[in-house]
Amino acid sequence: MAEIRNGPRARLVLSSLLLTVSATLIAHAPLAAADAYQDWLRSQSLGTEAMKRQYQVYRSEQDLQFSSHLKAQWQEFQVYQGKVRDPSPKPKILPKAVPKTPVIANVPAQEQPIRPDVPAETPLPPKIEPSPPPPVLPAEVVRDSIELDFYGNPITLPFDPQWRSMRLSKLDPDGIAAFWDTSSATRLQPTLQAMAKARQDLALDDWGHVALWQQLAKSLQPDHPAERSLLLWYFLVKAGVDVRLGYSGAQPWLFVAVEQPVYAVNYTKVGERTYYALLSPDRGKSLKRFSTYDSSYPAPLQPLNLKSVATAFGKAAPVAKTVTFDFQGRPVTLKFDYDRRVVEYMSTFPQMDFELYFATPGSPAARNPLLQTLHQKIQGMSEENALNFLLAFVQKGFAYQTDEEQFGYEKYFYVEETLHYPYSDCEDRAVLYSWLVRNLLGLKTVGLHYPGHMTTAVAIKSPLRGNWNSIEWQGERYVIADPTYINASIGMAMPSYANLQPLRVVPAP
Protein backbone atom coordinates (compact mmCIF):
# COMPACT_ATOMS: atom_id res chain seq x y z
CA MET A 1 0.00 0.00 0.00
CA ALA A 2 1.36 3.45 -0.89
CA GLU A 3 2.55 5.56 2.01
CA ILE A 4 0.48 8.65 2.80
CA ARG A 5 2.83 11.43 3.81
CA ASN A 6 1.87 14.17 6.21
CA GLY A 7 1.18 17.62 4.74
CA PRO A 8 -1.71 19.92 3.78
CA ARG A 9 -2.51 18.10 0.52
CA ALA A 10 -2.42 14.74 2.30
CA ARG A 11 -4.74 16.02 5.01
CA LEU A 12 -7.21 17.20 2.34
CA VAL A 13 -7.11 13.83 0.60
CA LEU A 14 -7.47 11.97 3.91
CA SER A 15 -10.43 14.16 4.92
CA SER A 16 -12.13 13.48 1.58
CA LEU A 17 -11.61 9.73 1.95
CA LEU A 18 -12.99 9.73 5.49
CA LEU A 19 -16.05 11.70 4.43
CA THR A 20 -16.68 9.36 1.49
CA VAL A 21 -16.33 6.23 3.66
CA SER A 22 -18.57 7.71 6.37
CA ALA A 23 -21.26 8.63 3.89
CA THR A 24 -21.13 5.15 2.32
CA LEU A 25 -21.47 3.38 5.68
CA ILE A 26 -24.34 5.60 6.75
CA ALA A 27 -26.12 5.06 3.46
CA HIS A 28 -26.14 1.29 4.06
CA ALA A 29 -27.09 1.43 7.76
CA PRO A 30 -30.71 1.04 8.92
CA LEU A 31 -32.33 4.45 8.92
CA ALA A 32 -35.60 3.56 10.58
CA ALA A 33 -34.90 5.52 13.71
CA ALA A 34 -35.15 9.29 13.55
CA ASP A 35 -32.13 9.76 15.79
CA ALA A 36 -29.97 7.85 13.29
CA TYR A 37 -30.94 10.33 10.59
CA GLN A 38 -30.11 13.26 12.87
CA ASP A 39 -26.73 11.70 13.64
CA TRP A 40 -26.08 11.46 9.90
CA LEU A 41 -26.94 15.13 9.37
CA ARG A 42 -24.63 16.17 12.21
CA SER A 43 -21.81 14.07 10.79
CA GLN A 44 -22.20 15.74 7.41
CA SER A 45 -22.17 19.21 8.98
CA LEU A 46 -19.05 18.42 11.00
CA GLY A 47 -17.41 17.02 7.87
CA THR A 48 -18.08 20.20 5.90
CA GLU A 49 -16.71 22.40 8.67
CA ALA A 50 -13.63 20.21 8.93
CA MET A 51 -13.06 20.49 5.21
CA LYS A 52 -13.38 24.27 5.39
CA ARG A 53 -10.84 24.41 8.23
CA GLN A 54 -8.46 22.17 6.31
CA TYR A 55 -8.77 24.39 3.22
CA GLN A 56 -8.08 27.51 5.27
CA VAL A 57 -4.98 25.87 6.73
CA TYR A 58 -3.83 24.85 3.24
CA ARG A 59 -4.38 28.35 1.89
CA SER A 60 -2.60 29.93 4.85
CA GLU A 61 0.38 27.65 4.35
CA GLN A 62 0.52 28.71 0.68
CA ASP A 63 0.57 32.37 1.70
CA LEU A 64 3.23 31.77 4.37
CA GLN A 65 5.40 29.89 1.90
CA PHE A 66 5.05 32.69 -0.66
CA SER A 67 5.79 35.32 1.99
CA SER A 68 9.06 33.58 2.91
CA HIS A 69 10.04 33.57 -0.78
CA LEU A 70 9.26 37.27 -1.03
CA LYS A 71 11.71 38.05 1.77
CA ALA A 72 14.63 36.30 0.09
CA GLN A 73 14.37 35.33 -3.58
CA TRP A 74 14.70 38.58 -5.53
CA GLN A 75 16.71 39.25 -8.68
CA GLU A 76 17.20 42.13 -11.09
CA PHE A 77 15.64 41.51 -14.50
CA GLN A 78 16.15 43.21 -17.84
CA VAL A 79 13.22 45.16 -19.29
CA TYR A 80 12.99 45.04 -23.08
CA GLN A 81 11.58 47.70 -25.38
CA GLY A 82 8.07 47.04 -26.66
CA LYS A 83 7.69 44.97 -29.82
CA VAL A 84 7.00 46.80 -33.10
CA ARG A 85 4.56 45.32 -35.61
CA ASP A 86 5.72 47.23 -38.68
CA PRO A 87 8.80 49.48 -38.59
CA SER A 88 8.28 50.73 -42.16
CA PRO A 89 6.99 54.32 -42.46
CA LYS A 90 3.49 54.92 -43.78
CA PRO A 91 2.70 57.44 -46.52
CA LYS A 92 1.66 60.82 -45.14
CA ILE A 93 -0.05 61.88 -48.38
CA LEU A 94 -2.22 59.34 -50.16
CA PRO A 95 -2.09 58.87 -53.93
CA LYS A 96 -5.35 59.30 -55.84
CA ALA A 97 -6.40 57.00 -58.62
CA VAL A 98 -8.18 57.93 -61.82
CA PRO A 99 -11.59 56.33 -61.25
CA LYS A 100 -11.79 53.11 -63.19
CA THR A 101 -14.39 50.39 -62.92
CA PRO A 102 -13.37 46.79 -63.71
CA VAL A 103 -15.75 44.94 -66.01
CA ILE A 104 -17.49 41.73 -65.01
CA ALA A 105 -16.69 39.09 -67.62
CA ASN A 106 -19.56 38.35 -70.03
CA VAL A 107 -22.32 39.23 -67.58
CA PRO A 108 -24.10 42.62 -67.55
CA ALA A 109 -24.01 44.29 -64.16
CA GLN A 110 -27.78 44.72 -64.05
CA GLU A 111 -28.25 40.95 -64.13
CA GLN A 112 -26.29 40.51 -60.89
CA PRO A 113 -28.24 42.42 -58.27
CA ILE A 114 -27.52 42.05 -54.60
CA ARG A 115 -30.17 39.78 -53.16
CA PRO A 116 -32.83 41.86 -51.39
CA ASP A 117 -32.98 39.33 -48.56
CA VAL A 118 -29.44 40.05 -47.34
CA PRO A 119 -29.97 40.59 -43.60
CA ALA A 120 -29.59 44.16 -42.45
CA GLU A 121 -28.71 42.94 -38.98
CA THR A 122 -26.21 40.11 -38.69
CA PRO A 123 -26.24 37.80 -35.67
CA LEU A 124 -24.37 38.92 -32.61
CA PRO A 125 -20.87 37.46 -32.18
CA PRO A 126 -20.54 34.31 -30.07
CA LYS A 127 -20.59 34.96 -26.37
CA ILE A 128 -17.08 35.11 -24.93
CA GLU A 129 -16.68 32.39 -22.35
CA PRO A 130 -14.46 33.66 -19.53
CA SER A 131 -11.81 31.45 -17.99
CA PRO A 132 -13.24 29.46 -15.05
CA PRO A 133 -12.72 31.24 -11.72
CA PRO A 134 -10.68 29.54 -9.00
CA PRO A 135 -12.70 27.26 -6.67
CA VAL A 136 -14.19 29.21 -3.79
CA LEU A 137 -15.86 28.33 -0.52
CA PRO A 138 -19.23 29.60 0.72
CA ALA A 139 -19.02 33.36 1.19
CA GLU A 140 -18.31 34.92 4.54
CA VAL A 141 -20.60 37.68 5.75
CA VAL A 142 -19.15 41.10 4.96
CA ARG A 143 -20.99 44.28 5.86
CA ASP A 144 -19.05 46.75 3.70
CA SER A 145 -19.70 47.03 -0.03
CA ILE A 146 -18.75 49.41 -2.80
CA GLU A 147 -20.55 50.18 -6.07
CA LEU A 148 -18.51 50.59 -9.22
CA ASP A 149 -19.62 51.97 -12.57
CA PHE A 150 -17.98 49.64 -15.09
CA TYR A 151 -18.71 51.09 -18.54
CA GLY A 152 -22.30 51.83 -17.59
CA ASN A 153 -22.85 48.67 -15.54
CA PRO A 154 -23.39 49.19 -11.79
CA ILE A 155 -21.48 46.46 -9.94
CA THR A 156 -21.66 46.03 -6.16
CA LEU A 157 -18.71 44.30 -4.53
CA PRO A 158 -18.15 43.44 -0.86
CA PHE A 159 -14.79 44.48 0.53
CA ASP A 160 -12.74 44.26 3.70
CA PRO A 161 -12.40 47.75 5.27
CA GLN A 162 -8.73 47.05 6.05
CA TRP A 163 -7.98 47.41 2.33
CA ARG A 164 -8.60 51.15 2.59
CA SER A 165 -6.12 51.72 5.44
CA MET A 166 -3.29 49.34 4.50
CA ARG A 167 0.08 51.06 4.11
CA LEU A 168 3.41 49.89 2.74
CA SER A 169 6.16 50.29 5.34
CA LYS A 170 9.02 50.21 2.82
CA LEU A 171 9.39 49.29 -0.82
CA ASP A 172 11.82 46.41 -0.40
CA PRO A 173 11.46 42.61 -0.06
CA ASP A 174 10.66 42.77 3.67
CA GLY A 175 8.10 45.55 3.24
CA ILE A 176 6.43 43.78 0.31
CA ALA A 177 6.31 40.48 2.25
CA ALA A 178 4.74 42.31 5.22
CA PHE A 179 2.10 43.84 2.93
CA TRP A 180 1.33 40.36 1.56
CA ASP A 181 1.00 38.98 5.11
CA THR A 182 -1.44 41.74 6.06
CA SER A 183 -3.45 41.24 2.87
CA SER A 184 -3.61 37.47 3.42
CA ALA A 185 -5.28 38.00 6.79
CA THR A 186 -8.18 39.98 5.26
CA ARG A 187 -11.50 38.60 4.02
CA LEU A 188 -11.14 38.21 0.27
CA GLN A 189 -13.43 35.24 -0.33
CA PRO A 190 -16.72 37.20 -0.66
CA THR A 191 -15.10 39.62 -3.11
CA LEU A 192 -13.71 36.77 -5.22
CA GLN A 193 -17.17 35.26 -5.49
CA ALA A 194 -18.87 38.55 -6.34
CA MET A 195 -16.21 39.34 -8.92
CA ALA A 196 -16.57 35.90 -10.53
CA LYS A 197 -20.34 36.42 -10.79
CA ALA A 198 -19.93 39.91 -12.30
CA ARG A 199 -17.52 38.54 -14.87
CA GLN A 200 -19.90 35.76 -15.82
CA ASP A 201 -22.94 38.07 -16.00
CA LEU A 202 -21.15 40.53 -18.31
CA ALA A 203 -19.25 37.88 -20.30
CA LEU A 204 -16.01 39.80 -19.82
CA ASP A 205 -12.86 38.87 -21.69
CA ASP A 206 -9.61 38.41 -19.74
CA TRP A 207 -8.65 42.07 -20.04
CA GLY A 208 -12.06 43.19 -18.81
CA HIS A 209 -11.66 40.91 -15.79
CA VAL A 210 -8.32 42.56 -14.94
CA ALA A 211 -9.75 46.04 -15.60
CA LEU A 212 -12.56 45.43 -13.10
CA TRP A 213 -10.07 44.43 -10.39
CA GLN A 214 -8.02 47.49 -11.32
CA GLN A 215 -11.03 49.75 -10.83
CA LEU A 216 -11.72 48.20 -7.43
CA ALA A 217 -8.13 48.75 -6.28
CA LYS A 218 -8.22 52.36 -7.46
CA SER A 219 -11.51 53.00 -5.63
CA LEU A 220 -10.12 51.57 -2.39
CA GLN A 221 -6.74 53.34 -2.59
CA PRO A 222 -7.35 56.50 -4.67
CA ASP A 223 -4.56 58.58 -3.08
CA HIS A 224 -1.81 56.01 -2.54
CA PRO A 225 -0.52 54.65 -5.87
CA ALA A 226 2.07 52.30 -4.33
CA GLU A 227 -0.48 50.64 -2.04
CA ARG A 228 -2.94 50.53 -4.94
CA SER A 229 -0.42 48.58 -7.06
CA LEU A 230 0.33 46.12 -4.26
CA LEU A 231 -3.35 45.63 -3.49
CA LEU A 232 -4.08 44.96 -7.17
CA TRP A 233 -1.18 42.50 -7.25
CA TYR A 234 -2.66 40.63 -4.27
CA PHE A 235 -6.16 40.60 -5.82
CA LEU A 236 -4.99 39.28 -9.18
CA VAL A 237 -2.76 36.57 -7.72
CA LYS A 238 -5.66 35.35 -5.61
CA ALA A 239 -7.92 35.46 -8.69
CA GLY A 240 -5.51 33.12 -10.48
CA VAL A 241 -3.84 35.69 -12.80
CA ASP A 242 -0.10 35.37 -13.40
CA VAL A 243 0.99 38.86 -12.39
CA ARG A 244 4.40 39.78 -11.04
CA LEU A 245 5.28 42.68 -8.74
CA GLY A 246 8.66 44.39 -8.84
CA TYR A 247 10.27 47.69 -7.99
CA SER A 248 12.88 50.10 -9.26
CA GLY A 249 13.93 52.86 -6.91
CA ALA A 250 10.82 54.13 -5.13
CA GLN A 251 8.41 52.93 -7.84
CA PRO A 252 6.50 49.60 -7.79
CA TRP A 253 5.84 47.96 -11.16
CA LEU A 254 3.30 45.35 -12.21
CA PHE A 255 3.98 42.98 -15.11
CA VAL A 256 1.32 40.51 -16.27
CA ALA A 257 1.85 37.38 -18.37
CA VAL A 258 0.01 37.22 -21.72
CA GLU A 259 -0.28 34.22 -24.05
CA GLN A 260 -0.11 36.26 -27.26
CA PRO A 261 2.50 38.85 -28.33
CA VAL A 262 1.69 42.37 -27.13
CA TYR A 263 3.06 45.43 -28.94
CA ALA A 264 4.20 48.92 -27.93
CA VAL A 265 4.64 48.03 -24.25
CA ASN A 266 7.84 47.05 -22.45
CA TYR A 267 8.24 43.50 -21.19
CA THR A 268 10.47 41.14 -19.26
CA LYS A 269 11.01 37.38 -19.23
CA VAL A 270 10.95 35.18 -16.15
CA GLY A 271 11.48 31.52 -16.91
CA GLU A 272 9.44 30.51 -19.94
CA ARG A 273 6.88 33.31 -19.70
CA THR A 274 6.81 36.85 -21.03
CA TYR A 275 5.41 39.53 -18.72
CA TYR A 276 4.22 42.92 -20.00
CA ALA A 277 4.06 46.22 -18.10
CA LEU A 278 0.39 46.65 -18.96
CA LEU A 279 -0.64 47.66 -15.43
CA SER A 280 2.17 50.11 -14.71
CA PRO A 281 2.62 53.84 -15.32
CA ASP A 282 3.59 54.61 -18.94
CA ARG A 283 3.49 50.84 -19.56
CA GLY A 284 7.14 50.49 -18.62
CA LYS A 285 8.58 52.75 -21.31
CA SER A 286 10.82 54.57 -18.80
CA LEU A 287 12.02 51.35 -17.17
CA LYS A 288 15.27 49.56 -18.09
CA ARG A 289 15.75 47.11 -15.22
CA PHE A 290 13.77 46.22 -12.13
CA SER A 291 13.89 43.77 -9.22
CA THR A 292 11.30 41.04 -8.79
CA TYR A 293 11.02 37.72 -7.00
CA ASP A 294 12.45 34.71 -8.79
CA SER A 295 9.95 32.26 -7.31
CA SER A 296 6.28 31.69 -8.14
CA TYR A 297 3.13 31.58 -6.08
CA PRO A 298 2.56 27.97 -4.91
CA ALA A 299 -0.85 27.71 -6.66
CA PRO A 300 -1.12 27.65 -10.48
CA LEU A 301 -1.50 31.09 -12.07
CA GLN A 302 -2.68 31.63 -15.66
CA PRO A 303 -1.50 34.17 -18.25
CA LEU A 304 -4.08 36.42 -19.88
CA ASN A 305 -5.57 35.04 -23.09
CA LEU A 306 -6.30 38.07 -25.30
CA LYS A 307 -7.52 36.22 -28.38
CA SER A 308 -10.92 37.96 -28.26
CA VAL A 309 -12.40 41.31 -27.29
CA ALA A 310 -15.81 41.69 -25.68
CA THR A 311 -17.89 44.38 -27.44
CA ALA A 312 -21.36 43.85 -25.97
CA PHE A 313 -20.95 44.04 -22.18
CA GLY A 314 -21.39 47.78 -21.70
CA LYS A 315 -24.64 49.70 -21.49
CA ALA A 316 -24.61 51.50 -24.81
CA ALA A 317 -23.93 55.24 -24.96
CA PRO A 318 -24.83 55.97 -28.62
CA VAL A 319 -23.10 58.80 -30.43
CA ALA A 320 -24.57 60.06 -33.71
CA LYS A 321 -22.27 60.45 -36.71
CA THR A 322 -22.80 61.80 -40.22
CA VAL A 323 -20.52 60.82 -43.11
CA THR A 324 -20.60 62.46 -46.55
CA PHE A 325 -18.76 61.18 -49.65
CA ASP A 326 -19.26 60.96 -53.40
CA PHE A 327 -19.94 57.82 -55.40
CA GLN A 328 -19.90 57.83 -59.18
CA GLY A 329 -20.18 61.61 -59.20
CA ARG A 330 -23.13 61.82 -56.79
CA PRO A 331 -22.97 62.96 -53.14
CA VAL A 332 -24.02 60.42 -50.52
CA THR A 333 -24.83 61.22 -46.87
CA LEU A 334 -25.08 58.49 -44.22
CA LYS A 335 -26.21 58.86 -40.62
CA PHE A 336 -25.59 56.18 -37.99
CA ASP A 337 -24.61 55.66 -34.34
CA TYR A 338 -21.63 54.08 -32.61
CA ASP A 339 -21.04 53.22 -28.93
CA ARG A 340 -18.82 55.62 -27.00
CA ARG A 341 -18.32 53.19 -24.09
CA VAL A 342 -16.93 50.49 -26.35
CA VAL A 343 -14.44 53.03 -27.71
CA GLU A 344 -13.41 53.90 -24.16
CA TYR A 345 -12.84 50.24 -23.32
CA MET A 346 -10.94 49.51 -26.53
CA SER A 347 -8.62 52.46 -25.88
CA THR A 348 -7.31 50.55 -22.84
CA PHE A 349 -7.01 47.18 -24.58
CA PRO A 350 -3.40 46.07 -25.25
CA GLN A 351 -2.09 46.47 -28.80
CA MET A 352 -2.26 43.01 -30.37
CA ASP A 353 -1.55 41.39 -33.73
CA PHE A 354 -3.53 42.05 -36.94
CA GLU A 355 -5.78 38.99 -36.64
CA LEU A 356 -7.58 40.25 -33.53
CA TYR A 357 -8.68 43.48 -35.24
CA PHE A 358 -10.03 41.68 -38.30
CA ALA A 359 -11.85 39.15 -36.07
CA THR A 360 -13.52 41.64 -33.71
CA PRO A 361 -17.01 42.81 -34.76
CA GLY A 362 -18.56 46.18 -34.09
CA SER A 363 -20.74 46.53 -31.02
CA PRO A 364 -24.52 46.03 -31.30
CA ALA A 365 -24.92 49.81 -31.06
CA ALA A 366 -22.87 50.26 -34.25
CA ARG A 367 -23.89 47.10 -36.10
CA ASN A 368 -27.60 47.70 -36.31
CA PRO A 369 -27.84 51.29 -37.61
CA LEU A 370 -24.69 51.22 -39.73
CA LEU A 371 -25.32 47.90 -41.44
CA GLN A 372 -29.00 48.69 -41.95
CA THR A 373 -28.18 52.07 -43.49
CA LEU A 374 -25.56 50.66 -45.85
CA HIS A 375 -27.76 47.71 -46.77
CA GLN A 376 -30.50 50.07 -47.92
CA LYS A 377 -27.99 51.93 -50.11
CA ILE A 378 -26.58 48.85 -51.89
CA GLN A 379 -29.86 46.99 -52.42
CA GLY A 380 -30.27 46.18 -56.10
CA MET A 381 -26.62 46.93 -56.95
CA SER A 382 -24.39 44.43 -58.68
CA GLU A 383 -21.72 42.77 -56.60
CA GLU A 384 -19.10 44.97 -58.26
CA ASN A 385 -20.98 48.23 -57.65
CA ALA A 386 -21.72 47.28 -54.04
CA LEU A 387 -18.04 46.58 -53.40
CA ASN A 388 -17.11 49.91 -54.97
CA PHE A 389 -19.78 51.75 -52.98
CA LEU A 390 -18.36 50.37 -49.72
CA LEU A 391 -14.87 51.27 -50.92
CA ALA A 392 -15.93 54.86 -51.58
CA PHE A 393 -17.57 55.04 -48.14
CA VAL A 394 -14.34 54.01 -46.36
CA GLN A 395 -11.94 55.86 -48.71
CA LYS A 396 -13.70 59.23 -48.70
CA GLY A 397 -15.93 59.23 -45.63
CA PHE A 398 -13.02 59.24 -43.18
CA ALA A 399 -10.04 61.62 -43.16
CA TYR A 400 -6.57 60.08 -43.38
CA GLN A 401 -3.74 60.63 -40.92
CA THR A 402 -1.02 58.33 -39.63
CA ASP A 403 -1.09 57.16 -36.01
CA GLU A 404 2.15 59.03 -35.31
CA GLU A 405 0.50 62.26 -36.43
CA GLN A 406 -2.74 61.65 -34.52
CA PHE A 407 -1.45 60.00 -31.32
CA GLY A 408 2.33 60.10 -31.37
CA TYR A 409 2.51 56.31 -31.42
CA GLU A 410 1.25 53.35 -33.45
CA LYS A 411 -2.33 52.34 -32.64
CA TYR A 412 -4.50 49.96 -34.62
CA PHE A 413 -8.26 50.50 -34.61
CA TYR A 414 -11.17 48.18 -34.10
CA VAL A 415 -14.32 48.90 -36.13
CA GLU A 416 -15.81 51.13 -33.44
CA GLU A 417 -12.66 53.22 -33.14
CA THR A 418 -12.50 53.99 -36.87
CA LEU A 419 -16.07 55.28 -36.62
CA HIS A 420 -15.14 57.45 -33.63
CA TYR A 421 -11.77 59.09 -34.22
CA PRO A 422 -11.39 62.03 -36.63
CA TYR A 423 -8.61 60.28 -38.58
CA SER A 424 -7.70 56.75 -39.57
CA ASP A 425 -4.94 55.07 -41.55
CA CYS A 426 -4.54 52.00 -43.75
CA GLU A 427 -4.88 49.21 -41.13
CA ASP A 428 -7.97 50.81 -39.64
CA ARG A 429 -9.68 51.20 -43.02
CA ALA A 430 -8.78 47.65 -44.05
CA VAL A 431 -10.40 46.27 -40.87
CA LEU A 432 -13.58 48.35 -41.37
CA TYR A 433 -13.92 47.51 -45.07
CA SER A 434 -13.32 43.80 -44.47
CA TRP A 435 -16.01 43.75 -41.78
CA LEU A 436 -18.55 45.56 -43.99
CA VAL A 437 -17.98 43.26 -46.98
CA ARG A 438 -18.29 40.10 -44.88
CA ASN A 439 -21.45 41.26 -43.12
CA LEU A 440 -23.27 42.93 -46.02
CA LEU A 441 -22.21 40.83 -49.01
CA GLY A 442 -21.23 37.53 -47.41
CA LEU A 443 -17.90 37.49 -49.29
CA LYS A 444 -14.62 36.23 -47.88
CA THR A 445 -11.88 38.79 -47.32
CA VAL A 446 -8.24 38.87 -46.24
CA GLY A 447 -5.88 41.60 -45.15
CA LEU A 448 -2.65 42.06 -47.12
CA HIS A 449 0.28 43.42 -45.14
CA TYR A 450 3.00 45.22 -47.13
CA PRO A 451 5.90 47.22 -45.68
CA GLY A 452 4.21 50.31 -44.23
CA HIS A 453 0.81 49.49 -45.72
CA MET A 454 -2.25 47.29 -45.20
CA THR A 455 -5.02 46.69 -47.72
CA THR A 456 -7.79 44.16 -48.31
CA ALA A 457 -8.63 41.62 -50.96
CA VAL A 458 -12.03 40.04 -51.68
CA ALA A 459 -12.94 36.60 -53.02
CA ILE A 460 -15.56 37.86 -55.52
CA LYS A 461 -18.04 35.44 -57.03
CA SER A 462 -17.73 36.70 -60.63
CA PRO A 463 -14.36 36.73 -62.44
CA LEU A 464 -12.95 40.03 -63.67
CA ARG A 465 -11.19 40.71 -66.95
CA GLY A 466 -8.76 43.41 -67.96
CA ASN A 467 -6.10 45.04 -65.82
CA TRP A 468 -6.85 44.08 -62.24
CA ASN A 469 -4.65 43.07 -59.32
CA SER A 470 -5.22 39.94 -57.29
CA ILE A 471 -3.50 37.25 -55.26
CA GLU A 472 -4.10 33.55 -54.87
CA TRP A 473 -4.40 32.29 -51.31
CA GLN A 474 -5.42 28.83 -50.11
CA GLY A 475 -6.63 27.86 -53.58
CA GLU A 476 -8.84 30.94 -54.12
CA ARG A 477 -8.38 34.14 -56.10
CA TYR A 478 -8.73 37.36 -54.07
CA VAL A 479 -9.11 40.70 -55.86
CA ILE A 480 -7.38 43.76 -54.38
CA ALA A 481 -9.76 46.32 -52.86
CA ASP A 482 -7.73 49.12 -51.30
CA PRO A 483 -9.75 51.36 -48.94
CA THR A 484 -6.82 53.80 -48.63
CA TYR A 485 -6.20 54.34 -52.38
CA ILE A 486 -8.57 57.25 -52.98
CA ASN A 487 -10.93 56.85 -56.00
CA ALA A 488 -9.64 53.31 -56.66
CA SER A 489 -12.17 50.63 -57.63
CA ILE A 490 -11.84 46.94 -56.87
CA GLY A 491 -8.96 45.40 -58.76
CA MET A 492 -6.80 48.53 -58.51
CA ALA A 493 -3.65 48.45 -56.34
CA MET A 494 -1.65 51.42 -55.10
CA PRO A 495 1.19 51.86 -57.65
CA SER A 496 4.03 51.49 -55.11
CA TYR A 497 2.67 48.09 -54.03
CA ALA A 498 1.18 46.76 -57.27
CA ASN A 499 4.20 44.59 -58.12
CA LEU A 500 5.05 43.49 -54.58
CA GLN A 501 4.12 40.29 -52.84
CA PRO A 502 2.56 40.92 -49.42
CA LEU A 503 4.66 40.18 -46.37
CA ARG A 504 1.69 38.44 -44.84
CA VAL A 505 -1.89 37.44 -45.57
CA VAL A 506 -4.18 38.06 -42.60
CA PRO A 507 -7.32 35.87 -42.65
CA ALA A 508 -10.64 37.38 -41.61
CA PRO A 509 -13.22 35.02 -40.06
Query: Judging by the overall fold, what is the CATH architecture of the largest domain?
Result: Roll
Note the main sheet.
Answer: 6 strands, antiparallel
Instruction: Identify the strand order in the major beta sheet.
Output: 1-9-5-6-8-7
At the first level of CATH, the class of the largest domain is Alpha Beta
**Cα-atom radius of gyration:** 29 Å
Number of helices: 14
Helix content: 25-40%
Structural class: alpha+beta
How many structural domains?
A: 3
The gist of it:
It contains 14 helices and 19 strands. By secondary structure, the chain is an alpha+beta fold. β7 and β8 (273-276) form a beta hairpin.
Folded structure, characterized:
This protein has 509 residues and is an alpha+beta fold. It has 3 domains: 8-71; 104-127 and 313-507, Roll (C8orf32 fold); 138-293, no CATH class. It is built from 14 helices and 19 strands. It has helices at 8-28, 34-72, 162-165, 173-184, 189-202, 206-220, 225-238, 340-346, 354-359, 364-378, 383-397, 403-406, 415-420, 426-441; strands at residues 74-78, 103-104, 145-150, 153-158, 243-248, 251-257, 267-270, 273-276, 289-293, 318-327, 330-339, 399-400, 423-424, 445-450, 453-458, 464-465, 470-473, 476-481, 504-507. The strands form 6 sheets. The chain has a 6-stranded antiparallel beta sheet with strand order 1-9-5-6-8-7. Strands 17-18-15-14-19 form a 5-stranded antiparallel beta sheet. The protein has a two-stranded antiparallel ribbon with strand order 2-16. Strand 17 (470-473) and strand 18 form a beta hairpin. Helix 2 runs antiparallel to helix 4 and helix 11 runs antiparallel to helix 14 (426-441). The chain is elongated. The model is unreliable at 1-38, 40-46 and 102-142 (pLDDT under 50).
